[in-house]
Specification:
Blueprint: H1 11-22, H2 33-37, H3 49-57, H4 67-70, H5 76-80, H6 87-102, H7 106-112, H8 118-135, H9 148-151, H10 154-184, H11 196-209, H12 220-243, H13 246-251, H14 253-263, H15 266-286, H16 288-291, H17 296-321, H18 324-343, H19 352-365
Helix pairs in contact: 1-6, 3-6, 6-7, 8-18, 10-18, 10-19, 11-19, 12-15, 15-17, 17-18
Bound molecules: iron/sulfur cluster (2 copies).
One iron/sulfur cluster binds near residues 34, 49, 83, 85 and 87.
Length: about 375
């Protein structure tokens, strides 16, 4: 007798998918065009048709599937779906739900994905930074030349932002541990073998080169823009990390020039970040009809990254031209944006960097499409 499979549909899961922007899932009639046209799907148990079925039936195990992360939302399937079911968009919603599932505390993940909570989410870093300024008697526009350390002493910035980053890392480690565990007891029973370090290096090479993303056709431009944002982000992260050690550099004359040269990375980093994010914005609007307009979750991430880049750029410009009444408030907004980006990273679309990496590593070790 054949093995029996029991499924447990969950109507509330279907409702959540629809509320988060995946309401087209119910239109799917399982023709399989999407899996045929996808350039990234493996030949065995291809996506996204099966995920559409799982989404329609309320089979919530689908959020644990590595396959939802192997999709780069190129929208080829969305364009060619004869029913307008937008499988690329539905998979995007499933990824959002995966992030929510593995985030801790989970209620915060739900709030980040809900526009009603945005004012409160912004209010938290604003009030925190104002509170810190008040406690240290710094609630005023500093006298003299513009130096942001006069408003926020570097030690304060280090403590606040390292605290936010440490919190995000803790949540990510916790989520990834659980996700990896779930992947390895998943209902697909894929045998995982291989060398973790070697496969992780190969996975990171895939990510850095965007070689999978570049197989997209409909929204090919998105892969280039995403690459620019990615490298802009890396450059700015390097400069920010170096800033934590600036006193050490300044105390060692021999390497001070190296430090100053590395700081210049902020210029191409900001340019790449802003140009890339503008390209993503334009490309999404241009393809909205055929490829889908994206969800609130997608747009929130785009706007937060843009806010970090724009406020960082204008903080620099206003300081150079010496307009302190604009420079200090812009710098304050910049700090709020950076805090928002890092503190909420495990609950926002930024978490895709972590979960996609883990899923791609798993898929590579399971010889699934790699
Ligand atoms: S999502 Fe569209 S293309 Fe894919 S199986 Fe359903 S109806 Fe067919
Ligand atoms: S959006 Fe692109 S990568 Fe994702 S399933 Fe559709 S065709 Fe494949």
């Amino acid at each position: 007798m054949a093995d029996e499979t029991f499924i447990k549909p969950d109507l509330s899961f279907v409702k959540r998918i629809m509320a988060a922007g995946g309401d087209t899932a119910k239109k799917c009639y399982q023709c399989d065009t999407c899996s045929v046209v996808c350039n990234l799907t493996p030949t065995s148990q291809p996506f996204p048709r099966k995920e559409m079925l799982q989404a329609q039936w309320g089979l919530k195990e689908v959020v644990k599937s590595p396959d939802i992360w192997l999709c780069h939302q190129c929208s080829d399937c969305t364009v060619l779906c004869p029913r307008g079911a937008k499988p690329g968009e539905v998979l995007g919603v499933l990824r959002q739900m995966c992030i929510e599932q593995y985030a801790f505390p989970s209620f915060l993940a739900g709030k980040v994905g809900d526009p009603k909570w945005l004012p409160l989410l912004i209010a938290f870093p604003v009030l925190l930074l104002l509170f810190v300024l008040n406690i240290f008697g710094l609630m005023r526009i500093p006298e003299g030349t513009i130096q942001y350390s006069k408003l926020f002493p570097t030690l304060l910035v280090d403590v606040i932002f390292m605290g936010a980053a440490a919190f995000a890392v803790f949540v990510f480690v916790n989520g990834v541990r659980q996700y990896w565990k779930d992947l390895n007891v998943n209902p697909w029973k894929v045998k995982v073998e291989g060398n973790l370090v070697r496969d992780l290096i190969a996975t990171l090479k895939d990510i850095i080169s965007h070689n999978r993303f570049r197989q997209c056709e409909t929204t090919f431009a998105r892969s280039l823009n995403h690459l620019l944002v990615f490298f802009g982000f890396v450059f700015l992260a390097v400069v920010t990390a170096l800033a934590f050690y600036r006193e050490w550099f300044e105390a060692h004359d021999a390497v001070t020039n190296v430090y100053l040269a590395m700081k210049l990375l902020a210029i191409p980093g900001t340019a790449a970040l802003l140009y890339g994010i503008y390209g993503i914005y334009q490309e999404r609007l241009k393809n909205a009809d055929k490829a889908g307009a994206g969800t609130y979750f997608d747009w929130l991430f785009i706007f937060v990254v843009a806010a970090v880049g724009v406020t960082g750029l204008f903080s620099w410009v206003f300081r150079l031209i010496g307009i302190k009444m604009l420079a200090y408030p812009t710098y304050f907004i910049h700090l709020v944006s950076v805090f928002f980006l890092f503190f909420y990273a495990p609950y926002s679309k930024m978490a895709h960097m972590v979960y996609r990496t883990v899923a791609m590593l798993y898929a590579r070790m399971a010889k699934r499409g790699f």
